[in-house]
Design brief:
heterodimer, A: alpha/beta, six-stranded mixed beta sheet, 39% helix, 24% strand, B: 224 residues, 9 helices, 0% strand, flat, binds adenosine-5'-triphosphate, binds magnesium ion, transmembrane (chain B), MetI-like_sf (chain B)
């Protein structure tokens, strides 16, 4: 139900994505890992056209798009079927928590303000921030801001939510609450692609772990397999490095 | 050295205040038009629309690079020579036009700076949920940018009020024009111009006071 074929992206001379093929079933959770600068963020950004891929096909739900020929309506269509959670939250600073979540329903779906706010309140309940409805982002902790960021993505009722290192910018004390919310979404069968360095999360939640290096997918397998029995030398050396610097996750 | 004619000055105040609505009206009209035009110019500059961007650059450069008085004369006395439908342009309209074009050039640059100051990630977030560029501009970027730019825009408004006094050179009897006429008939130039100076001063001080309060409120915004 999500299928990427031959996704290629260059920045000038530098080929950042070199023909990525990846597909997901509904409800599947994929964790993408790999060294820095390897194109993980770029891959997510290509899926909803924050970056425009130079070539490749994308299929999300009922919409198929040829990247090289994508028209404005294709791009909007893709964006309306996907949602993005940013490393730095990227909340709308002039809107309250409630308004951040309701914005898409008002502007994109055309709901009335009342209906949108009612639905946004339900989402605030689900993410445990009902009491912060009227707070502006600047008055919230990093963890709360990121949970609002996830709530905004949930409001999209997207086919897939793309998470780009959602906990990397957080003080350690807030990481757990954000991961817990993501686990809750996983339990609700939300399809997601998560770029993260949280190996423990990958082990617990991922259906499949994808290891990327140099703009390509090197190997992909269920976590039990990829973490214990990586086939490629690059995967092994990457895992040695991160697990050494991340002792608790190695248990 | 003779003493100031205080009675004359006090008598002049209500007469001159009668022209205040015209002065403030021209400034308000100019400000509203300038806000719209400068937002459009700023958006064109920021989104680097081809051709329009270059045109906006030339426009801004010209209207910042020439005196307002020259621009007013150009519109009022100069343009009707070529554009016959402007023959009937009156001084008030010409003044509002001149103020609009002149000040929008300055205001566009302030708004542009404010727009580029908004974190780029908010634009991406808006796009990521499927908002169009126009929706992003209107609902996410401009509300924050105008807020950032408000103190500067208030300064331009204050400046604009003072600049309406140039309208008297186009034969408009506004605050300054009226003073000029009163002075010419009484020969009490110092008294008359002192009164009008104080009137301008009080208006500007009142606005500056509002500006400070507004700034305080804006600084507290988004903190709840
Ligand atoms: N807008 C851009 N212009 C030019 N080069 C870019 C741009 N965005 C990313 N790159 C380059 O593309 C490469 C891949 O970047 P990307 O951010 O996708 O990597 P990543 O795997 O997410 O890394 P990290 O783990 O550090 O987040 C990097 O070399 C980066 O410098
Ligand atoms: Mg990245």
């Amino acid at each position: 139900m999500i299928a990427l074929k031959g996704i290629t992206k260059r920045f000038g001379e530098h080929t950042v994505l070199d023909g990525i093929d990846l597909s997901l079933e509904r409800g599947e959770i994929i964790v993408v890992i790999g060294p820095s600068g390897t194109g993980k963020s770029t891959l997510l950004r290509c899926i909803n056209f924050l970056e425009r891929p130079d070539a490749g096909q994308l299929k999300v739900g009922d919409l198929s798009v040829d990247a090289a020929r994508a028209k404005n309506e294709d791009i909007l269509g893709l964006r309306r079927r996907t949602a993005f959670v940013f490393q730095n939250y990227a909340l709308f600073a002039h809107k309250t928590a409630l308004e951040n979540i309701a914005e898409r329903m008002i502007v994109v779906e055309g709901l009335s303000k009342n209906d949108a706010h009612a639905r946004a309140r339900e989402i605030l309940e689900r993410i445990g921030l009902a009491d912060k409805a009227d707070a502006y982002p600047a008055a919230l902790s990093g963890g709360q801001q990121q949970r609002i960021g996830i709530g905004r993505a949930m409001a999209a009722k997207a086919e897939v939510i793309l998470f780009d290192e959602p906990t990397s910018a957080l003080d350690p004390e807030w990481v757990e609450e954000v991961l817990a919310l993501m686990k809750q979404l996983a339990a609700e069968q939300q399809t997601m692609i998560v770029v993260t360095h949280e190996m423990q999360f990958a082990r617990e939640v991922a259906d499949r772990v994808v290891f990327m290096d140099g703009g390509r997918i090197v190997e992909q397998a269920p976590p039990s397999e990829l973490f214990t029995n990586p086939k490629d030398e690059r995967t092994r050396s990457f895992l040695r490095k991160v697990l050494a610097g991340n002792a608790p996750a190695a248990t | 050295m003779q003493a100031l004619n205080l009675d004359y000055m006090l008598g002049l105040v209500p007469i001159l205040l009668g022209y205040l609505p015209l002065t403030l009206g021209m400034a308000a009209a100019g400000m509203v038009c300038a806000l719209i035009l400068s937002c459009a110019l700023a958006v064109i500059r920021v989104s680097r629309l081809p051709v329009l961007n270059q045109a906006a650059q030339v426009f801004i450069s010209f209207f910042r690079g020439t005196p307002l008085l020259v621009q007013l004369f150009l519109f009022y006395y100069g343009l009707p020579q070529f554009l016959s439908f402007l023959v009937s342009i009156n001084g008030v309209t010409a003044t509002i036009m001149g103020l609009t074009l002149h000040f929008s050039a300055y205001m566009a640059e302030s708004i542009r700076a404010a727009i580029t100051g908004i974190d780029r990630s908010q634009t991406e977030a808006a796009q990521s949920i499927g908002m169009t560029n126009a929706q992003t501009m209107r609902r996410i970027i401009l509300p924050q940018a105008t807020r950032v730019a408000t103190p500067t825009l208030m300064n331009y408004f204050i400046d604009m009020i003072k600049s309406t006094s140039l309208a008297f050179t186009l034969g408009v009897t506004e605050l300054m024009g009226a003073t000029q006429k009163e002075a010419a008939s009484s020969f009490l130039y110092f008294e008359a111009f002192l009164v009008v100076a104080v009137i301008y001063w009080i208006i500007v001080e009142a606005l500056s006071w509002c500006q400070k309060r507004l700034e305080k409120r804006l600084n507290r915004a988004y903190q709840r």
